[in-house]
Amino acid sequence: MVRIDPEKQIERHYLYYFLLTQFDLLNSKTTGTTIPHVNKEVFRNLPIPLPPLPEQRAIAHVLRTVQRAKEATEGVIAALKELKKSLMQHLFTYGPVPVGAKNFSPQRESEIGPIPAHWRVVKFDQAITRATRVPKVKQSDYQPIGLVPIIDQGQSFIAGYTDKSPYKDNLPVIVFGDHTRVLKFVDFPFVAGADGTQVLIPNSTLFDPLFVYYALSTIDIPSRGYNRHFSLLRESSLPLPPLDEQREIARMLQAVDAKIAAEERRRAALEELFKTLLHQLMTGKVRVKGFHLPELE
């Protein structure tokens, strides 16, 4: 760690953004193991492009504006995820009735907590007609068709499924990463990691598949050793409302998920925009002359 006091001819926010462009270089020159730091001489010898102060302030203003938009989007995503969490608790306790409504269906206690009295509770094996571990195959063994990434944590091989897949006539399916404890609701074809990944085919006679996905998502699966998560999931029970209520619950939660996905795409776009602007503004490929801004706080 090095304290930097900019000279008067350098706007400090501009300097901060310039140093972001040098992160990899500075990181490669750290010394020390307990608290890695960069020698002051590295900073002293670092060439800094220095446009006039008004342009420095304009550059910093543009970049900070994009950063603030990204931070605002992250706040929206966090709020939407909290909303989804509260909504799930409400829907799986009272059914698809408006939050704040006074006339709920009669409740009863069950092995999974309070639920509407007319709901049933069934074991995992009644909700899932088939659970199959993803076979260990090489990607080269298949000709993939429009693959979609499913397990996005950890390093693992990728299995591609085509018309030879035994799952192709049972759409959609739920993919559960036993090692990562990641649930995904997917359509064929798909890609899945190999870390104990299970393909779950919902019982479409009793359940709406998307409802099963959300119901499984409410189950807390503790860590009990390597690759034991699916065994714990399989010991669980799920609520069984009437099909029309299942579909309404799934529709409400899917609407929130769609909003979260849209905001996450916006965040990714802003992040990419920031990286592009950072490079172009700091290299002079894009100029912001003529901006007359007060000194940033």
Provide a quick synopsis of the model.
This protein is an alpha+beta fold. It is built from eight helices and twelve strands.
Q: What does it look like?
A:
The chain is α+β, with helices and mostly antiparallel strands and 297 residues long. It is 41% helix and 15% strand. The chain folds into 2 domains: 12-75 and 272-282, no CATH class; 79-98 and 106-260, Adenine-n6-DNA-methyltransferase TaqI, Chain A, domain 2 (Alpha-Beta Complex), CATH 3.90.220. The chain contains 8 helices and 12 strands. The strands form 5 sheets. It has a 4-stranded antiparallel β-sheet. Strands 1-2 form a two-stranded antiparallel sheet. Helix 4 packs antiparallel against helix 8. The longest helix is centred in the first third of the chain and has 42 residues, at 53-94. Residues 137-164 have low confidence and may be disordered.
Features:
alpha+beta; single chain; 297 residues; 8 helices; Adenine-n6-DNA-methyltransferase TaqI, Chain A, domain 2; two-stranded antiparallel ribbon; 15% strand; elongated; 41% helix; 4-stranded antiparallel beta sheet; 2 domains
Q: Which structural category fits the helices and strands?
A: alpha+beta
CATH top-level class of the largest domain = Alpha Beta
Number of helices: 8
For the biggest β-sheet, the strand order reads 6-11-8-9
List the quaternary state of the chains.
Answer: single chain
Proportion of helical residues: 40-55%
Q: Uncertain spans, ≥5 residues at pLDDT below 50?
A: 137-164
Largest beta-sheet details? 4 strands, antiparallel
Mean pLDDT: 78
| Overall body shape | elongated
In total, how many domains does the architecture comprise?
2
CATH architecture label name of the largest domain: Alpha-Beta Complex
The CA-CA distance between the termini, in Å, is 23 Å
